[in-house]
Amino acid sequence: MKTFTSESIKKLLKKETMEKTIYLFEEVGSTNDVAFELARNGVSDGTIVIADSQTKGRGRLQRKWISPSGLNLYISVIFRPTIQIKDTPLFTLITSIALAETIKNNGAEPSIRWPNDILIDRKKAAGVLTEMQPRGERVDFVVVGIGVNLNMTREIMEREMEEIAETATSIREATGYEIDRSKFTAELINELQIWYQKFQKEGRNRIIQEWTERWGAINRRVQVKFDENAVEGIASGIDENGYLVLKKDDGTYETIVAGDVILL
Ligand code: BT5
């Protein structure tokens, strides 16, 4: 197995990202929880937490993120932006674009599934969990957690994930190549920096446009499930907050803040 340490990652970072502090742990509960703790203690913007494995990897709504050791990437990045609370989902958009670019540069064909998944061949290869600490109306810090399936084989996925394996894939499965974790991690950090800077310089419209170009469901018929409800319609775009805009059969539009999208 190739080396996977903060030094092996740092060596591959671009000049602009080299200064970042990277904490790499063998095992944690959740890298998002560790990042929250560090951020509360005042670490700087851009600080990164990585773990080889997680015992309590989290998705949205208390779902589990399966996080075996030696194979994948589990990373959280702390941002200290000057934004309002309602703008937090923009960080999921920025991260999804960076992820899609990194995966594409590693030879696979990703598409984004709103709000926070990256699919390859319609199966989930990566997920993003964006959380934040409020300070009044504004955000004190944002923690972006990213899980990417890099080197799990079908056999390992079936063993580790049981029935979820059917809906999951890895970059190795898609490309047939073993992925160097340090190299992939450095490339992802570099892309995150690029897209975060684009957001700061050019604003949200550029991000929404780039995200939409990588979205697998634009103008497609979808079902969106949330709580106990489900609605159907045409996925017509995302609004300025990153919320899904659905055109329903009666011609009206509905804006959806959170949910799970199925292509029909
Ligand atoms: C997500 O949630 O997709 C966000 C996942 C974020 C994980 C990262 S790892 C680093 C950081 N630290 C954390 O504790 N979390 C973040 P959601 O959209 O709710 O999807 C969760 C669902 O994905 C689960 O209910 C499963 O069905 C499925 N799933 C779980 N583990 C998976 C995996 N390794 N690959 C593909 N699908 C998985």
- The string of secondary-structure elements, in order, is HEHEEHEEEEHHHHEEEEE
Number of helices: 7
Distance between the termini: 41 Å
Bound molecule kinds, no repeats? biotinyl-5-AMP
**Approximate strand percentage:** 25-35%
Domain module count:
2
Give me the oligomer status. Answer: single chain
CATH fold name of the largest domain:
BirA Bifunctional Protein, domain 2
The secondary structure category is alpha+beta
> Low-confidence runs (pLDDT<50, min 5 residues)?
none
CATH class of the largest domain: Alpha Beta
Percentage of residues assigned to helices? 25-40%
Task: Provide mean pLDDT, rounded.
Answer: 96
Shape: globular
What is the CA-atom radius of gyration, in angstroms?
18 Å
Count all strands and give the number: 12
Q: How would you sum up the major sheet?
A: 7 strands, mixed
The CATH architecture classification of the largest domain is 2-Layer Sandwich
Query: Would you identify the CATH H-level superfamily of the largest domain?
Result: Bira Bifunctional Protein, Domain 2
The side-by-side strand order for the widest beta sheet comes to: 1-2-3-7-6-5-4
